[in-house]
Amino acid sequence: MDILLVASAFNSLTQRVYAELSDLGHHVDVCLASQGADPVRAAVRERRPDLVIAPMLRTAVPEDVWRDHTCLIVHPGPPGDRGPSSLDWAIAEGAQEWGVTVLQAEAAMDAGPVWAAEPFPVPPVGKSDLYRNEASDAALTAVLTAVRRYAEGSYKPRPQTDDSISVVWRDAFRRERRRIDWERDDTETVLRKLRGADSQPGVLDELLGREVFLHGGHAEDRLRGRPGELLARRAGAVCRATRDGAVWIPELRPRRNSGDPAPFRRPAASVLAAWEPSLDLPEAPVPLNLPSDRRTWTDIRYRQRGDVGFLGFSFPGGAMSTDRCRRLLAAYRHALSHPTRVLVLGGDRDFFSNGIHLNVIEAAPDPAQESWVNLNAMDDLVEAVLHTTDRLVVAALAGNAAAGGAMLAVAADEVWCRTGVVLNPHYRRMGLYGSEYWTYTLPRRVGADHADRLTTEALPVSAASAERLGLVDRLVPAAPGDFTAEIERLAAELAAAPDLDGRIAHKAVARAADERERPLAAHREAELARMHAIFFDPQAPYHALRSAFVRKTPSGSPRPLAAPVGDVR
Fold first, then answer.
1. What pLDDT score was predicted for residue 554?
2. For the residues 358-373, what does the mean pLDDT come to?
3. Which residues contact 358 (CB under 8 A, 6 or more apart)?
4. How many CB atoms lie within 10 A of CB 177?
5. 490-505, pLDDT tens digit by residue?
6. 207, 334: one domain
7. Is residue 164 located within the same domain as residue 189?
8. Helix (H, G, I), strand (E, B), or coil: what is residue 532?
9. What is the mean pLDDT of the chain?
10. 3-state secondary structure of 241
11. Could you tell me if 355 and 412 lie in one domain?
12. Lowest mean pLDDT among 422-426, 449-453, 457-461, 555-559
């Protein structure tokens, strides 16, 4: 079918719906509805789609569109749930199970007949993590079911007047409900409030006399202090006392009226340091080999199971600043000091990596210089992976990867990918040529023609398509909460494989042959020359695109696009 996706942003779910419907042979176009109803009307007139689907839409579909065309809305709530803040309420009320409903657009919000619905569990994670994982899996299942039913032509969607559906209207989740009372709220209450707003909109609070939004929350089992007191810092995050414990807050977003020239999310400690340079929070060290009984937060961990090492990392938004790259490189070298036969890279869930940290770059005194330093730190990390010839390195992608983060993954010997993952192995949407040795690793995996297509078309790639291309070596059909255990099992099998020694020996020979043909240093030099020219050209589109992405201002065309420009993370 010809399917038009109407979305407020080309976000993770919209990308996944686009990629997986395309995999099934449908012709899919995308219209970004961020500039009002007229672009949607124009897209429908021009494309004349068989079906309109709204995977993520903050505004209503125009009435003249839904009256003349079947429009399916993806609502992140179970059948009968209505309102704009469904996931917020699910987390706030401690729901153990929630759901996604695909319903037909009508005049009343979320009141149309149901084409498909799918339940999902609600683990104690942040809202954005939940949305990209359990909710996304359920949404895809429901969308594919609804599309199949529509195509067959015989299915009658279930009206919400059906006795089996209990209608519940939930108002918008107001800012006041998220407010933390540091004197009265216990740690679990604080965590629930932080998790319910970890990406957007954040929890409005006050620190050092300024209003700021708190983003993300993780429990701390040892540090204690007066409720609301800042206790320590670690890896850019800050620890704050509750009435019965403490929580780690990785990121802060200054309120626009706070006087901060960079009112967007970035590492919490750096925001506070810019406000009060004399603030001297103690550094709370944590070992890479964190004991299993600890309940604390750190963004990089190492553990070993027999002949397999697991280097876990999880950065907010998948963004890797200069500091994060350097610390991860140090951890990687630490992992290499242990005698393992297989080394697995990647976090337990959510983003693998999205490359350089655009928010930190935007906030830097010299964004061009910070871009350059950050990119070189990413290159150093990828280079270390490529030079590892004494064991097999596996990149285990529990979640999405893009740009330099995708190239970090393909630098490994094998890429294992959860089936729900979406890859964006390109840089074009940010106006960049790219580095991280992609001119070596990408053609080596998919061939020169496919590498050119992936980087110039700049379209999202489903996990299944990535495997067919050779970008991914193994699909892991596991639920988000089961991914780590399945990776451990597969890695143990790999470490025990009788041909592993031969594979490692062949790897070293192949790397030496490639080096003779064209040294890795030559790839890096050529890539960085292109990137240097972009970074240090004030007129290069990268600077405007980066600023628009970070500051959430419009940057793309509202017309149907093969490769929309917008929020791809």
1. 73
2. 98
3. 319, 430, 546, 549, 550
4. 15
5. 999 999 999 999 999 9
6. no
7. no
8. helix
9. 95
10. strand
11. yes
12. 555-559
Q: Are strands 97-104 and 71-75 parallel, antiparallel or unpaired?
A: antiparallel
8 A C-beta contact, residue 524 and residue 435: yes
Domain count, the chain: 3
Give pLDDT tens digits for 375-394.
999 999 999 999 999 999 99
> Is the link from the previous residue into 367 a cis peptide, with omega within 30 of 0?
no
**Burial grade of 376 (CB within 10 A; 0-12, 13-18, 19 or more):** middle
Question: In this structure, what are the phi and psi dihedrals at residue 462, rounded to the nearest 5 degrees?
Answer: -70, 165
Tell me, yes or no, whether 309 and 201 share the same domain.
no
Last residue of a domain, one of 169, 199, 217: 169
CA atoms within 13 A on the CB side of 448: 0
Structure-token pair, residue 371: 């871009």
The per-residue DSSP string of 109-163 comes to TT-SPEEEEEEEE--SS-HHHHHHTHHHHHHHHHHHHHHHHHHHS---PBPTTST
Burial code (b: 16+ CB inside 10 Å, e: under 16) for 342-366 equals bbbbbbbbbbbbbbbbbbbbbbbee
Domain ranges, residue 243: 181-275
CA–CA distance, 250 with 29 (Å, rounded to integer) = 37
Q: Clarify whether residues 436 and 388 are in a common domain.
A: yes
Token readout for 291 is 């004991």
User: Based on the domain organization, do 49 and 145 belong to the same domain?
Assistant: yes
> At 9, which helix (H) or strand (E)?
none
CB 324 within 8 A of CB 358: no
pLDDT tens digits for range 300-336 = 999 999 999 999 999 999 999 999 999 999 999 999 9
Q: Which two tokens stand for residue 313?
A: 């990392």
Closest by alpha carbon to 386, among 566, 510, 535? 510
Paired tokens of 517 = 């043909």
**Residue 36's pLDDT is what?**
85
Rounded Cα gap, residues 30 and 277, in angstroms: 46
Contact residues for 234 (Cβ-Cβ < 8 A; gap 6+): 248, 283, 284, 285, 286, 297, 298
